[in-house]
Each structure stands twice: as C-alpha cells, then as structure tokens.
Amino acid sequence: MTVSENKLWKSLSSDLEDGIQSVPEVEVWDLYSENRELLGKDHIRGSQLPADCYHLVVHVWIRNSKGEYLVSQRSAGRPTFPLMWECVDGSVMKGENSLQGAVREAKEEVGVDLLPEKGRIIFSDTRKIEFGKTANKIVDVWLFVYDGEVDLSNATTDEVAKAAWMNRSQIKELFDKKMFVDTFQYFFTKVDKQ
C-alpha cells in the first residue's frame, strides 16, 4: 500500500468508525393486546403501531422520606415538550417487565439506582389516544421510596436538563404555569394521596 493509499484508508476507517458511533440505538418493544396479553410480536420505536397492538410504558414517581418528589426537566433537544417538567417515564424494552423498565428508566434519565423492593404500582391505565393522536399505551404508574443522592452525571442519557426534589405545592405551581407535561395531572389525585 502506498503512502497516499494508507492515508486514504485511515481516513475512510476513521469516517466509518465515526459513522458507526453516531448511529442511534434502535428501541425494540414487545407488543401487547389491549388486555395486556403478550403477543409475541416486536415493534421498532418510530414506526406505526398496528391498530390492535399496545406497548408498555412506565411513569416512575420517586418520593423521599420528607414527602418530596424527584421531578425532572426535559432537555432542550427533546423532540416533544422540551424544557417541560415531568416524572421519570419511558417505554419498556423488549424482554423487560414493567418493574425492570421502571428501574432502567430511572438510571437512564436521572442516574438513580432504585431498589426494586422499594417500588410498587399505584395504578395502570390503557390509553388509546393521547394529545389527539393514537397512542396505544398501557401505562404502569410506579411509586418508589428513595433517599439517596441524585447526580445527573450518573445518568446514561442526556434526556434530562435538571432534576429537583419538589413538594406538592411546588409541583402544582409548575402545572399552573403550564411548565409540567399535562399527562401527569393525575399526580394530585392518585400519586400524592398515597
């Protein structure tokens, strides 16, 4: 190989490696019936869900012994609801159960290692429509007790700009200012009553 061929090869190899590193990871979900029966079908995030299929989503509320909740502000680059506040949430991945998805999402988004035995499902909800669009979600709402540190540098994604412990009135203030994602309005009737 000549010197110029060697330089070209190194350049192409470097470009290829950079390209591979920048390819986003594909999310694959298990599909369920409306009655939460596992269908044995996979779904790739971003493609149209079949009309009669649902995917599993978790909302993870984390409460400390002072009665405060860990809420997070979505990063500015998020395609939906940038810079709005919410609890930890996300889709359950293929092969995970709801609890595993809840624990993983907490680590990914806010860098917290939740103990499975410190969590419980408060309620589940099936949502066919959300924000005027077909959603086909089965949503499990979790409540975990956690008194440890919160350090966003331990998060494995950059989905969250800030995390903060807030009490009910502080969360209500965010809702009143339309700074909290609307779908979490159930907090006041179902989560904070626990």
Describe what this molecule looks like in 3D:
With 194 residues, this protein is an alpha+beta fold. The chain has a single domain (25-191), classed as Nucleoside Triphosphate Pyrophosphohydrolase (Alpha-Beta Complex), CATH 3.90.79. The chain is built from four helices and nine strands, in the order H-E-E-E-E-E-E-H-E-E-E-H-H. It has helices spanning 3-22, 98-110, 168-176, 187-191, and strands at residues 28-32, 38-44, 55-63, 69-74, 85-86, 88-91, 119-130, 133-145, 160-166. A four-stranded mixed beta sheet has the order 6-3-8-7. Strands 5-4-9 form a three-stranded antiparallel beta sheet, covered by helices on one side. Strand 7 (119-130) and strand 8 form a beta hairpin. The longest helix is centred in the N-terminal third of the chain and has 20 residues, at 3-22. The radius of gyration is 20 Å and the shape is globular.
Specify the overall morphology.
Answer: globular
- Give the low-pLDDT segments: 1-23
Helix content: 10-25%
Assign the structural class, choosing from mainly alpha, mainly beta, alpha/beta, alpha+beta, or little secondary structure: alpha+beta
C-alpha-based Rg, rounded: 20 Å
CATH superfamily: Nucleoside Triphosphate Pyrophosphohydrolase
Straight-line N-to-C gap: 71 Å
User: How many E-type strands?
Assistant: 9
Overall structural domain count: 1
